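Appendix B, example 12.
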Amino acid sequence: MTHNVLFILDKIEVLTSSRLVAGESMIFSGFKKIALVACILAISACSKTDNNSDFAVDEIIAPDTLYNQALANLDAGDLSETQKRLSDLDSQHPYSEYSRRSLILNTFINYRKGAYAEAANSGNRFLQLYPGDKDAAYAQYIIGMSHFKRIPHITRDQSTTSKAYNAMNAVVEKYPESEYVEDAQEKILITRDQLAGKQMLVGRYYQERREFLAAINRYRKVVETYPSTRHVEEALARLTESYYSLGLVQEAQNSAAVLGHNFPDSKWYDESYKLLQTGGLEPRQAENSWLKGLFGLNENET
C-alpha cells in the first residue's frame, strides 16, 4: 500500500505540474497538501482493494475500502471512477472522516475537469458541513475560482462575476490569515472592474439613444460603487456630458470639477473641460451635489 500511495503522489505531481496561470498554482498547491493527508489516512487504514472490484447495487461498503478504491482509481488516472467511489463514500458514510476528505478531494477533481459549477456546489456543501474545518479556506477559494473561470464577456449578464466577487471577498473576510488572500484580493479587483465596465456599457447605450436619465443612473453606479476602478474617469466625464445635455449645468460643472480634482491629467477631463467651454462655462464644485462627500478617491488614486 505504501508503494501505491507514493505512486499516487507522483501522479498528483504530474497532474499539477503543467503551466499554471495566476490562481491555478494556489489550487494545485492546496490540493497536494490535502492529498498527502489523504494518502496517510489510506495507509493507516491498510485496506487492500482491487481496482476492478464490482460493488453490488445498494451494498454497504466499509468507508476505508471505498476510499482506497478511489485512490486506486486516481492512481490509474481515472477521475470519473474516482468520483464514483467518492460519491458512494459520501452517500454511505456521510459523517465519517473519509467522507469529509472525499468531499474536498471531489471538489478539486471537479475543478480540474473544468466542471466549475459542480466544483462550486461541492465546495459550498463542504463549507455547510464543515465550516470550521482547516480546509474551509481552500474550499472557499475553489468556489471563487470556479466562478472566476466562468466570467462572461462584458456584453453578457454579469451575475457569475458577482458570484466570483462575493466568493473571493469571503476568502478575504473569513480567512484573512490564509495563503489564498493575496490572490483573492487580485481577483476582487478584476471582478469589480468587470462589473463597473458592464455599467459603463449600458450607460453608453442609453446615452447614445439620448436617454440621459437612464445613462446617469448607470454612471452614478460606477462612481458610487466602483470608485477605485479604471472606469471612474470616463464615468465622471459621461456624467458631465449627460447633465449638460439635460441642461443641468450645475451638476455638469460639478462632475467636471471632481474629475479634474482627482484626475487633472486625464484625457476625459480635457474633453469635459472643452465641452463646458462651448457654453461659456468652467468646472465648478457645488456644495449641494450628491458627489460631495461621496467621491472618496485621493488625488493620486487611479
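The longest helix spans residues 181-208. The chain has 13 helices and no strands.
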